[in-house]
Structure prediction request, 435 residues.
Amino acid sequence: MLDDIKDSFNKISKQRVVVGFDLSDEFSMISYFPLGEDEPISVSVTPGGEDICVPTVVCKYFAENAWAFGNSAIEAAKDRKGTIVSGLLSQAREGRPVRIENKDYDPVDLLALFMKKCFSLLSQEAPIEKVSVISITVDRPDAATIEILSRAIETLRIKPEKVFYQSHSESAFYYMINQNRELWNHDAIICHLSESGLYVRTMKKNVHTSPIVVLMDEKNFDHIKSEDLYDAPVAIQKQKDTEFWYVLQGLCEGTHVSSLFLLGDAFSMDWWKESLAYVSKKCRVFRGNNLFSKGAAYGAREILDPTKNGESHVYLGKDKVKANVGMRVIRDGEEVYMALLDAGKNWYETKRECELILEHEEVLSFIVTPLNGRNVKTAQMYLTGIPLRPGKSTRIHLDLKMLSERKLLVSAIDMGFGEFYEASGLMWNTEIVLE
Prediction:
């Protein structure tokens, strides 16, 4: 009987799929994860192929209402069959209309078109109706970017409650904690080489906290760019090899490194021979391109099916809320702590609404507790001018929303008390800085 239940559960789990979508200006990738499988699968541009990188471009064919994307768009533009649009994510962030054949196009619509084309590749292997969670990972998931992506998702008619967002650093975290422990027992380094430069993330752990806090030390080396290496003379390649060697030396000396991951097509070339010889003596070295998309898929799985490592480790990146926020309230005649916001969540996805019934309070007190439990503070909100009413006859609607990773906006509205006391319409706002 127990085996039958397990088999039934496993069958249901395998019918659910989560998706990680790595979206950037240069290349984009999709990995999907049938729950119950061992690891995510990256989607190839060609069925059965290994070409998983989709150039983030679209091309409108001349005098036609037809569009190509990815490599097909590049080929169409080379053959002078249409107008190519690149840098789709950046253009959507900027918000300026894109002019094509004397017509203006909304850059968010063009981004949504590209995303739709990418999801069409996925649908050949994992139909969208089977997808439970989609995690989109980008370099900078700020409020403006989340708004843009939310608009694109709405255009694609994907249920917004299915979609979550991660930074590349958080996706790297989820990827690493799902690898063999020997690869992240000590520091793990991820080097991402693109047209804009070399971006390095070093994953570090504080094993003295519970849960274990994981941080990403991020550095940018814009003097090493992938575009400088393609078709470059031998002398230039040797120079870049030396520069990369110095970067690696600075990262590895004086610390223990378990693994190094190299992302970007430029690492498929042999310009970094001396750097490879050096770092191979320090740690295990891996090369590939789908770390972020797989990491996003692992993160999506964590939402539905938390893992042991996911529960025992918490990632605290620059996009994460660094403190818990709550209040002391009376519930069933006893004073209890009511949690409002939890540390460790992305600030742009952190919000809370609730209602309070006041006794005679004119001040609301919020308890701010950093994740390390130290330097707990109390922040106050003054309800200046609140109408005088009998005790427990004032209902307040609270709206809490993070404005950044450190700044919290609290709004309160007087809702009155049913038919007994009309709402005054008074509203109070206060900002709280979370240290």
Q: What stands out?
A: Residues 172-289 form a domain with the Nucleotidyltransferase; domain 5 fold (CATH 3.30.420). The chain is about 25% helix and 35% strand.
